[in-house]
Structures
1.
Amino acid sequence: MKLKIIAQSLALIFMSGAAFADDTPPPDKMQKIEITGSAIKRSDVEGALPVQTITHQDIERAGITSTEQLLNTISANVGGVYNMSANQAEGFGNSNITHNSGASSANLRGLGPDSTLVLLNGRRVADHGLNGSAVDLNSIPLAAVERVEILKDGASAIYGADAIGGVINFILRTDYQGAEVSTSGDVTQHGGGDIYTGSILFGKGSLQNDGFNFMASLAVDKSTLLAGNQRSFQNGYQPDRGLAPDTRGTPYADVKFPNGFYLPGNPNQQLWANMIALQGGGPNACSSYPQMIPYPSALWGYTSRQDACAYDYGSDWALMQPVEHLNLVSRTSLKLDSKNTAYFELTGSHTKATDYYTPLQLGSNSNFYYPAGGPYYQNFSAYVPGFDPTQNETIRWRCLACGEREETTTTNTYRALAALEGEVNNWNYKAGLSAAGSFANTDLVNGYVTTSGINAAMDTGLINPWLPAGQQQTAAAMALINGAKITGPVYGGRSRLLEADGSVNGELMTLPAGPLSAAAGVDFRRESYDFDINAYAANNIEQSTGDSSLSQVSRNIAAVYGELAVPIVKGLDGDLAVRHDRYSDFGGTTNPKISLRYQPISSVLVRTSWNTGFHAPDFAQLYGGQTTNSLSNSVADPQCPKTVAAINCIDSWNFQSGGNPNLKPEKSEQWSAGLVFSPTSHASVDVDYWQIRRTDRIVQPDPTIMINYPQYVVRNPDGTINYIQDDLTNILADKTKGVDLGVKLNGKVMGEKLSFNLDGTYMISHASQSTPGQPMTEYVGQFGDPNNTYNDLYLRWRHTASLTWTHDVWSTTLYDQFNTGYKDEVPAGTVPPGFNPNVASYNLFNLGVGYTGIKDMTINFTIKNLFDTVPPFSAHNVDDVAGAGWDARVGQPRLRSFMLAVKYKFL
């Protein structure tokens, strides 16, 4: 997709602007308000910083029922493993993703959730209790949101840590009077993945007339399970297109032969085989068993498995997890006098999310075998020369009788705030004291077994791993399987935040070009986090990679900041801000920001800014426990001592990884420049170029790379390698840049009200280092890194556009969400002729109709995914996330759905 997309969108302004009647009277003098990204109140609608605003009406018209859906409409947010389809990892043990269960996170500019600052009414909330590094957006009470402001620029000079990619500020309703109830149902055409919501909002008292206001909102929502077998595009066996599972774990077990064997007419030694294939005359016979398939030897390049079977486990995967949310928000405001107000806010949420995964594959991480002499023993003597039926059979078995793996994560969050704001001697002030927390726990519900328990159960010979299709295990076998299962708590985490803040802003003096305004503030925080794990479960669950507990750790942060709004000459304004943060664990950091706003005529505004930012190391990064593993392949020691035999310098060396208390903060430097053109009061376009460079990235490097750096290699007295130190470290850098485009048109055409909005992002580059000191690798338009690692997806262009027609009590809106294509994941083995290296672009349309003809009632009906568009094919399987044959970072698995929302106001 070329830059012509932007040019064509710009041309739309000039072609359409003249068609809109400009009959709106001039606006009254605007009240000064505080905009996200600045501590100074001002009346400028467009400032020196790019801020996108989404109103409550926008949210309703779009049929948005969750913050995750809202996030998907923001073009600056990069798709990654942060939504409730993509964050379903391989079950327990994959701490990088599974610890986000039921959560959704923001990812502005593709810099990661920990580099996007999320605020509620301009103040911080606690990070998710399990991962301790990013806010769960689903804990935000969307039903009570008045608007959402998205600052698409760095803001560490005002807010401190994490505001590198930008800031998302959820602003709640205030001074609400009356009551309203709302409910909605969003039902899919093809079944599964339905969403239901309900809320009640109540407010009493006028702050201006009665001296008080009380507002409260209670909202519930429920998403139902969308299983993989409910969507035909969830298909992990398409070998002609480069997609097939690399697994020998089948319901009718594959058998491994330690010494191998040869079949007539096949010169390749075979190490794996399945009796179905041998008896049926070849691997195609595997397909006679549900979801079993021939092992894709040609695709994966393993000639030793040509008579084995495989299993399309992707079809078992849940595409959308069932989630239940309960959100509560209340605000009490008291008018102290004509210029001062006290208010108290309380927000809370309860989330229950359930993950479902394919049944366990047994035999991959343990010496798993069926005993010789057992009643179900497979005798291969007729097919395998020299087969010894007195030996145990090493097998890979998909334990369907164990049931789907099921985990439940429960998360409770809260924030309590007491604050004052007002005006003293023409200076505005605000001060607040808040406490926030997020407590989350994950329980194993079904499908998990202990390694020792299932090995002992199989050793009895009573479990049949070669059960014919449609038959059930015996009661005795099921008793053994159930006896090996493990359920109950597995891990939990708690994130807490205490904060006291205060700021003042006002005019210092009047300069020839206007008033010189200033702001100053202080911020004191105490952050704490702990993570505990069931050690028995971590060390004994089959296929668990383990994890480690982290006793409660905490730190204190003290910050001071200041800002000046300087009118330089008529039409040219500057803004200077600086903030110093002092952390009790790693020290201090100072971050400035400079921005300029030039408006030579009323229809043209030019803006630019430069700033630095930082991300403080997370607690798990600083203090996470150490684990020891070995390299998957033998690697030569590049500094092998001459006194050591060469054979002793090639090995699969041990490496230690974990937290590093000596980490420094990640740093950023960024700048932006933009133009806002408003030829009439009914048409505007804004174009902003942005660029961000991060250094001291906190990563866990590849140990096969770190072996080349002597300072990371711990040696024995004789000079041989003891282990490679592979802790998290500040070692890499990345750089990203692009262009944001915003278009707004509104007015009347032939007497009918029309409005058009477009929010688009063109990503020029996102380059990152994979090796210290080496050139950066470009990732825009790529599936992942060179090793096909499933990371963020940097699309060249993505946009959300809407066209709304309003007539009397009716409104109709057409929505469009577009994402360009990208290079697909390349098969690990032989690339088949039918493999398409490109994933197609993805375009979804929604059509909504609103009706307000009944007094105090609003009815909205929306057809989502109007044309029932399936996600484009990708040769990706589910080993990292939910998609098999499609990409969950960009695809929408629900397909077409029908949503009816009704809101009724009373009192």
Note: Residues 246-311+364-398 form one domain.
2.
Amino acid sequence: MRPWALGALVLVFFQVTTTSSSRTVETLDPVRIDVENADGDVDVTIEGILTRLNEGCEIETPSGSVYELTDDLPLAGVRAMTTTLAISCGVTITATADVLGEWWLIANETDFTNGASVQRRLRIIVHEGAIIIQLRKCEIVTPDGGRHELTNYTNINGIRSIQTNLAVSCGIAVQVSENVLGEWMLIAKETNWLNGLTVDTKLPIIFQKGYSNETASTEEPPSTDVNKLENKVINTEIGETFEVTITRGFDHETELCQIVKPDGSWYDFGTVIPGVTEQSTHESCSVTVTVLSEEFVGQWMLIAKEHKMLSGTYIETRLPFEVVVERSVQAIPQNSATVQENSNFHIRLMEPTDMYQTCRLVAPNAQALNRVQLDQSATNSCAYIVNKVTEEDNGKWAIVYGNNILYKASVELTVTDSTYPAIDTQVISLTQNTAVNMEVGPEGAVYCRLEDPYGVVVFDGFGRCILNIPRVPSSYNGHWTMTVEPRPGVQMSLAMSHADLALSLSCSVETSSTPRACKFRDPQGRILVAQEGVGEDRYSFHGAGISSASGKYTMDCGLRITSPGVEDLGIWRCGVDTEDDTRYGFLLVVCPWLMRNETIAATVETEPVLRPRVPYISTTPGDSVEMSCTIPSGIRYCYFRSQNGTILTATPGVSNDVFEYVGSGLEAGECGIRLRDFSMNDIGQWSCNVGTNNGSLPEKSAHINVYGSGTCCVPLGYRRDANATQLASIPNSTLKVETLLSLGQDVVLKLSADSTCNYSEEQMSASLRLQSDHSAILNAYVGIADQIDYCRFIRSDGFGFTNELVPEGYVFRGPLSARQCDLRIVRPRNVDFLPWIVAARITGQESEIIARTPPLEVFISQGNSSFFVFRLTLLCICIGLLCLSLGLMFSSKKSRRWTYARAAAVRDSIRRSFRKSPPLEAKPAISSPQAA
């Protein structure tokens, strides 16, 4: 950089703003108008104040011209509004490209209370598209390291601030003198609306003595080229160390290395700087920085001043690098929240902070910030209210605060449709003019909010709603609104660090019972129990542990994996044990730097796969036997199907004399049953079938083979009568296998009817019938429920599906609201005519009810039978003629002559049979002698 001569006037940016010294100026929050998204005219007003008298309104154009607001305002696209008690000054702006720029609406007023003259100024920014950068403040760093905020009244040794606009973020006017010698830095602190990050733009300014007329050298100083490298962002933590290097050029000789700290202080290499160590390498300049404190957070600069030996010129290479330390904190609500459309979303920090003045809210949709207001009831907790949320507000919201170290509290917001039906309706009878103190709402409610018919919040807290009214007024009669949050699930998230190639898994859950432990299961099935401060090989545990607030507990635990390998990729499970039960969650973990390898990517399971715990089981009759399968996903329903068609639906906490559920629960992805008394009826291949929670995946199935010997019951749908020509069904009956030689050989069965093996059907009816269009209709009706959650269909070959994911060739007709599970089979095949199993779950219950359809009887008509006999006869004739032809070809000449003669005789005989015989002629009468 060329040095400046003393006495010269250096104008970084200069603008003159004239205001009356006797008038107090108040600057209001700016208004921004997006031309692309604005709809026609936009009204901009300055609200009226009852204690002030309006003395006139003015408008300042982007070019700096000032006009008095009148009805004949000579500005295209800008019209004056009528002033009232509520509006001191106002304009209507037609949002077009003709009015782009920065406008000022000015209200000149007199305060009745003290007679003072006040000027209120409202900045109006008309722009194309969304402005994503918002200026927070300007700062100047002096040569002695002092940092000062630039305001309208700043004047440091002849350096003063100038007014900013859309084109200039920060600006200063400098009268160069001895007082300003040294290294200065101008800093513009801005906020990116899209991601909420703070951007510090820094402009170094160096003033040093130059060459005056009296001491000027005959040789001009060497020119210096400045090479500015791209800014480098370093995410780190307090106490961590990193290295920054400027690479040496081909013919460059380094003459000086310098480093600039975030406070603006400059140091030459060779100076002792705490936390900064020079590196002796072949590079131009290299340093190692240890982040000792918050003062190390911010914008740095490494400078290498070099001499090009071939050309003799000088070059100055500047490498700016920013040290960022970001820490996660908890927000309320924690991790995620579900809010109905057009409702208000409340968000705040879980723990108050002294740095609340630095708080800002980051939204996934920049336009949503226009609907955000501060919640004055919890200022120290950085509380915000987002009014009337929409579907565009879905995504991650975050509260960010801090001066140097940034603290971020994130919440994933889900906005539901406002037409979503109510879960339940409860009728409560109250007696007028009496006191009421009672609990209402579901027993297991985690959070409850109760509003009276006028929208007044009566209760808002954890647990069931408490209705406490000293005296019931008549106005309480009507519809109340109760909002109840369901049982919260386990929330899991994944963070990656490319710098040290590490993964961080976090697991948290809210519960009303005390959490006790946290454990992880990797994709290979290994269990890792989280203990704070305890590490195992490449795994270390961390987290906030257990916290409590308002009667609710929060368990937060984490697992850090250093140098992750292929065995760490896949679906992880997190389990949180509480005094009452265990909560589970699942998360897919992948590493981009490992998944680039196609061989590794092919081995990673990115979707849940159902697997049996033990695929082969051998047991003896009379013993109990367990069958189970697992899947890395929450399970909605689970059932087992035997080879003979028996269906057993497994539900945690529900058991009978035949079987019971075993496992950690459907939420854990475990489906299992224990047959209490194993019999030969249970031999064969079983299938374990599950449906996942989200319903987007088809039904999963895995097979388990059970071996044994003895006597068993086989449910068959047909019997054959020795004297019958068709199959007849045996409804609700089975056959008993009395003799079974062994598995793997020919099986000899002696069948007899056995009523002890009858299939039990209750509470649900099902039927199967054939339609005139050759399709089939399966009808099932639940007669004891108000509402059902889903229908499940199982074909005779074991293929199953639900009404939510129907395969091709089938059409679900329902409807669930009418408690019907109707299925249309478009083109039925043989397997579709056999008995079906239909299952349904009643809303509010854990177990299922099932029904079995009788087989569909298909009779063969008499016409079809005659047609079959005709075809068989024709086939026999053709075969006979073929045999005769072959015989003639291979017989002797004499035999062929005889055969030809016999065939000709047969032919002639057949021909004569078709000819008419000639009529017989009458013979003449002969007289006897006696007659004569």
Note: The helical segments are 592-595, 598-603, 830-833, 862-890, 893-914.
3.
Amino acid sequence: MKKRVLKSRGLRTLLMLSCVYAGEAVQLPFTASAAVVPSVDQTITLTDTPGILNDIDRTHTGDKQIVYIVDADGTSGRELNFAGDKTFIHNKGSNSNQNTAITAFDGAVVHFKADGTELYATSNNSNTSIVAVVNTAGDNHGSTINFNSANATVKAEGVKTATGVYTDRKSSTNFLANTNSTLHAKSQNNDAYALLNGGATNISGAVNLHANTAGGDAMGLVSHYEASGFEFGRDNSGKITAAPDSALKINAEATSGRAVGIMANAGGDITVNGDLTVNAKADGNAYGVWAQKSNDSVWMADTRSRANLNGNTAIRIDRSANDSDFKLVRALHASKGGFIKVNAEGNQNLVQIDGDLYADGKGYTDNSNLSLEISTNDWNEVEIEIELRSAEAGIAPMGGSVPTDGSSYIDFVMDKEGSYLHGAANGNVYITSAAGTEWQVTSDSDFRELYANGGRIDLSHQDHYYKDTNPYQKMSIETLHGNNSDFLINTDILNDNGVTVVKDGTEIYHGGSLSGNVYTYANGSKTVNLNTPVSYTRYGDFIHAENSNGPMTHNIYVDDDAFKNEAQVEGKYLKFARATDDVTFKPGATQVSQLYSYKPVVLQTAQEDTDADSKLVDQNDFDNLQWVNSNNRDWWITGYDKIITDDSKVPAAALAAAFAGWRYWNENDTLLKRMGELRYANDDGGAWTRVSRSKHTRGGDYGFTNHMTSIQIGYDQRQAAENGVWRRGIALSRDEGKSSYNKGKGENTNTSLALYGTWLGDKGHYLDLVLKGSRLRNEHETYGKYADSGTGKNWAASISAEYGRKQALNNANWYIEPQAQLTYGHLWGDSYTTKNGFEVTTDAMNSLVGRLGFVLSREVKKDTQKAFRYYAKASLLHEFCGDDQITLRDRSNDDRLSFRDSQGGTWYEVGIGANMLLNKNTHFYVDIEKSFGGEVKTPYRVEGGIRWEF
């Protein structure tokens, strides 16, 4: 039997500390032809038919190198099944060089089917390396191990290298659907690998990987292609595939070495179609996903290393141990021809990345190395050099052109709301952003293409890893695409000294001093030798778009203390961008308080005859700048405009919504809508109720959308009079509305008591008089950084007179009813304090509305107990008053704002409806209408009512 020697500096004595192994046997304790597999306390016999072992529930201990080894000897159908409630196998031998819990060899198939499976291989012997807790191997006949337990735990712990599950070339390990598997690999002074794949690994269930080491490198998921000499094409070896319904969680932590969540190496192919979560933390460099190198021993086949992440993806690199020593913090890293695709298949998955992106290219080459050797005596010998950089994604989004020469590159797509990237991007990186996504640019970024199709690109990164000593970043984009993205930058237009930083490749040093190529940290406790350091003085963040893909406009927002403090900046010119003449930066407003925002004043000029970097000059120097004749343009900030915020307008909009609802319920109310066709009534008295639902909208600064529900009940008595009858009554109503504003929302209520008298003349005349008192309550709240809320309360009263006459048009029971109405209302003022301490004072308001209209109706079954009529109506209305004023005062600094508003003007209403007698004593009515023109529009109002007579 061949002896397998696994060694490395990357995977030092690779596979030495392991629990499960699928592949060729390692120092087997029996001959290749053995059919009897000894264990510590039992014998398992494999016959020509599959050997079945059920209900294993024992603890196996001792100094065995391998507790269970299943050798099929190339014979098909040799299977070992572990079933029942629990399978527990523990190899804690201390004398063997390599410990393994179970090995499947040369075509064997092992099934873990018990409800619970625990496979351990541990050792505290400093000379012991544990090779695969679970191990599959076999050069001629690949072996298979299937995890089909509801819960499975694999644990490898030792002094040297530890590997949880190892799958060898041509073999496979499968984590089946509806299962939960957890793999631990922990080493005291060497490398740890939770799952190492040289064959095929398929994940359909939930898999949790943990790699932890105190003295080496920790890697969660590793795949590499082991070619067997020179090959014309590759097989499925070196591939890891996670299904769409899978859930893969990876944690890698190294105390003194490097931590890598996922590594695709030497032709390794990793595809994750399900949910993926990666956390990596190290005192050295840390990486989320790393792809590098191809396998040159395979001809006429694409053997570039790749990682395709096609599901919801969350990668977080812990920066706590890295920032102080400038260690690499790479969420995605691609080098030497490897590539990574993140959400590049158009599926719109949630992508949340905390860490940098890097891919060789655009003048950057990764010189860090992690070499890995796997020597497998009579199989093959593969040497792997691993560069630790950042990540990449596969295909350039939106039709971009990624390298076709085998270079590394990154295609990173954020196209689902809530996706984000917190980090820098350098090299052959292609990034897509969309509406609802955010990129916080935490350091200088120099990359290929940005498809800015909306979303927020924040160079100020106030919320993530901001440092006062390094407040400014430079973004260099080879080609800019897209439209309508928001760029946020830091500037300091009054600081003539600027901030000095030292840049060496992709790394930025700040706060210290540079002497030659030696950089000394600020506290003098540490020095570092740099390669090609360059010193810069910066006055703000800077955007450089070397090329653009057609005309585009993006928004620019500026964070500058001078603007916040309303300082005098006249005569200052600060350059913040250079782009082609197709690119326009439109200034956006930055809110600095609840009352005010500021918007930068920007100036576009020809290209200045200097490098593309930030610059601050005064008026005299600006007038003497030298300009270059090119298609590039420089962009400057020259000042700011102070703007009233949408937040401050919300109380005024809320008052407008409350006033509009109150006016609509009072002035626009008519006898027909309130009580239907009273001429059908012959009672001495009656009760009635009605319910309505309506929508009111208004645009502009004080715009709102208000949805109202109203209910009213009433009672009246009939009294005979000369030439007609009077009905005198009382009514109680309640209106409730929900409003939305430009930057807020609210609720409003109106409780009213009304007295009315209605005269119905014998010749079709009528007069309707209404006196009403109301109590309004108006709650509002605003959103965002300066969120606030408040409640206003107002008393109101109104009086209305309506006159009309119903006249027959012909003998076919068609009627027309001209109408006229005049309503006066008064809304008393109010004063209240918001949650944030702002005083809001509203002045009293008056309303005087006149209405002229008509109703065209047709009677059916007239003069019967089933009388019915349907109608159409139209009205012209005009508000003669409708002005209001509201004042806000910030009690902290006595800043004041006053707003004047008017809802005067003319509008029109049209509607249809019907009135009917259900029986002698019950009258039902329905009315539908909408309005046109005017300050406030009513897209719809639907009302129904019923009257009972006594």
Note: Residues 1-178 form one domain.
